[in-house]
Amino acid sequence: GEQGTAKTVMIKGFMAQYNADIHMSKSFNFSSATTPMMFQRTIESYVDKRMGSTYGPPAGRKMTTFVDDINMPVINEWGDQVTNEIVRQMMEMKGMYSLEKPGDFTHIVDIQFLSAMIQPGGGRNDIPSRLKRQFSIFNC
């Protein structure tokens, strides 16, 4: 939706209604300076080890993560938003490759993503189609 249509307020209001004993919520903003490593480290800070290479929200809870301004990461010279590619990988493959042990895959369970962005056009970026297909899209 356009600027000022209360996208963030509505989503945060919805998440505030969760029963915190069983469902936690986290939110963060993307900017043109957001890197894939920043996203991965943020998600890793929200989860605890469960078993083997499987991680999830603490105490067996579920978690909703809200990414505001998801279309803000910079587009590189090949037309990719590499920060959004790791978001897509996280959603599609239910995890990410380890930064400490290259080649090891970290599975992350009991997490879902919500996001908001301003409509593309007029110099504003769209998100990659491969990421867009992971979401149900509502236009405000």
Give the strand content: 15-25%
Total of helices: 4
Unreliable spans are none
- What is the H-and-E element order? HEHEEEHEEEH
- Helix vs. strand class: alpha/beta
In total, how many beta strands? 7
- How would you state the average pLDDT, rounded? 89
Radius of gyration of CA atoms, rounded to a whole number: 15 Å
Residues in helices, as a percent range: 25-40%
Largest sheet: 4 strands, mixed
The global form is globular
- Kindly, what is the distance between the CA atoms of the first and last residues, rounded to a whole number of angstroms? 4 Å
Strand adjacency order, main sheet = 2-3-6-5
Q: How is this structure best summarized?
A:
The protein has 140 residues and is of the alpha/beta class.
Walk me through the structure.
- By secondary structure, the protein is of the alpha/beta class.
- The protein is built from 4 helices and 7 strands.
- It has a 4-stranded mixed β-sheet.
- A hairpin with a 2-residue loop joins β2 (48-51) and β3.
- α2 packs parallel to α3 (82-93).
- The longest helix has 12 residues, at 82-93.
- It is globular, with a radius of gyration of 15 Å.
- The relative contact order is 0.21.
- The model has no long low-confidence stretch (mean pLDDT 89).
